[in-house]
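Hi Y.,

Following your request, here is the sequence exactly as I used it, all 422 residues.
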Amino acid sequence: MNCRIPGVHWIGTAILIVFSILLLTGCGGGSSGAGTAGSTVNVSVATAVPNVSPNDPAILTSGLSTSAAVSAADNVDHVWITVHRISLIPGNNDPGPDPNGEIAVQDLSSPDARGHISADLTEPEEIDLLNLPGGTLARFLNAIDNVPAGTYGKIRIYYSDPKVHFIDAPDNTVMHGTANFHLDIHFVGGKLVIPEATGSGVRLFEVTVSFVLGKDGLKITAGPNKILMRPQVFATVSTVRFVLTGVVDNVDKIASAFDLTAGGTRIFHVAYDNVSTVWSFRDPGVPGDPGAPPRAIPIDNQAFAIAALNNGATVDAIGEFTPGGLFLADDITITFPENIKAPVVSGTPSSGWLANDTFVLDLAIDNVVFPKPSRASARYDNNADLSVIDIGQAAIVQGAIVTARGYAVAGGVEAYWISIGP
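Below is the corresponding structure, written out as tokens. Let me know if you'd prefer a different format.
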């Protein structure tokens, strides 16, 4: 069974079942144990009917021949739901889940009632509640184009096609969805606070939430006619991180700060750390192939990365807002303005490098490349494989194909990143 999701990473820290939300891909482990891709999914499923002995899975999956509802939790290793809509519900007076779990009644309110902020996922995503995938809840929330700044009492996940798999059974079994097929996540010990509205170059990047199914956990009961799931979900919030995308101005390398204009209008003051901030370059695409995806490469040299950040660059800055509104960036990706893209070195009498440590491209104007911070300290790599960085300045020869990335100046470009090859 595939678990494809751009959305929720779950980590276990609570008593019964904890879903944490971080990044990246992969599917979690078994119904009780560690997940993969760095996630930790500790799952303990409580029974809906205390002190009931586990039933033979053959009985539970062969026509549900039990005479009354019984606990099925001990016989379950997968619980699948398909998420298709998500809502943020404002408020500070949420009474919390029903002690008996989500009730099997029709939800008469519309998805956007009482100030709900909702959106449908572009493509519904199937997840296994007992084998949770990597990803971020932020990816789900980013289905909402504009998440208003504010305080939210709970998140509502709308799902379809609930099904359960009993241990050793050949196939999944359809479950009965409760509460009009939604699952409410109630915040305790502090609500979900979104300090900045998203949209116009501002997106949620990571929302770290610990989800705890309540005292009776993931209630799954099997009766004579149907299997019923009535979850009871609490959550606590520890991290809300954003990614800001925009053009840099007022770079102050002494103060380790700059202004970022997102969406052409919204200006944020961003600070970074000279030691711990992670840096990378982004190439808009493979030269000569307009359909090629962007490529990003890490920068291991902090001093070089900071030198390469100047006014006019476009950056993606990932981090958190302080209470005063300052954005602390712990990850910055630099995209240089498109000044020169995949030109061919000019066939001048020189062999490549000139005496003043520059070289000239066969462009009509503004064709001089000024390596920065210097000829020796600029980055040189192989354009076909950007990870090959030992190519060196000796590769700049007459007739070579060169991509010079940097900032436009009189006569040419100050290039911090120089790639050689087609």
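Residues 1-72, 104-109 have pLDDT under 50 and may be disordered.

Thanks again,
Q.
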